[in-house]
Design brief:
Rossmann fold; 7-stranded mixed beta sheet; 6 helices; about 20% strand; globular
Length: about 200
């Protein structure tokens, strides 16, 4: 049975850690805490944590999940993701990308399989590397930039102090959605997430 590969998109390095563009990696940090594991360096140019998420039937440990944060810049995420898919022999249906989305209001979550990349260069890079768009995406809304701010500048800004309390709630909710996806499946998770 193929393990799950959950990839948090973002940019590497401390200077980017609090950026809106790195919200996918922030979700993975929450998931890592839940597994009591820690990330280690992988030859596929990524930090990975191989663990189990949630609980399975009869209270057994949940499914095997590889959490991964590419050590490459967002726009070239495809190389590490493709290498990890190959290394762990992951079925595309078990690949989930967690990423920021300008077109969703802040604190909104949406889960889907396939579709376009909506101008998101990280997704474009992954689709090109895999030769398919048929993977899962958990979109974390960050809202549109204020006024006439360039979206490229906006995504590379840190969340403000005023936004952080709500962000903390959103990150936990996103982690819940990932846990739910791997334990009960896409349709049930979408139903709960999109009607809440």
């Amino acid at each position: 049975m193929s393990p799950w590969l959950v990839v948090g998109l973002g940019n590497p390095g401390a200077q980017y850690a609090g950026n809106r563009h790195n919200v996918g990696q922030m979700v993975l940090d929450v998931l890592a805490r839940r597994t009591n594991g820690s990330f280690t360096t992988h030859k596929a140019r990524a930090l990975v944590l191989d663990g189990r998420l949630g609980t399975g039937p009869g209270g057994a440990p949940g499914p095997r999940v590889i959490l991964a944060k590419p050590a490459s810049y967002m726009n070239v995420s495809g190389g590490p993701v493709g290498a990890l898919v190959k290394f762990y022999d992951v079925d595309p249906g078990h690949l989930l990308l967690v990423h920021d989305d300008l077109d969703l209001p802040a604190d909104t979550l949406r889960l889907k399989r396939g579709g376009g990349e909506g101008g998101h260069n990280g997704l474009k890079s992954v689709s090109a590397a895999l030769g398919t768009r048929d993977y899962l995406r958990l979109r974390v809304g960050i809202g549109r930039p204020p006024g006439r701010m360039d979206p490229a500048d906006y995504v590379l800004r840190d969340f403000s102090a005023a936004e952080r309390p709500e962000l903390a709630v959103t990150l936990e909710e996103a982690a819940d959605a990932v846990e739910e996806l791997v334990t009960v499946g896409l349709e049930k998770t979408q139903q709960r997430l999109h009607t809440a």
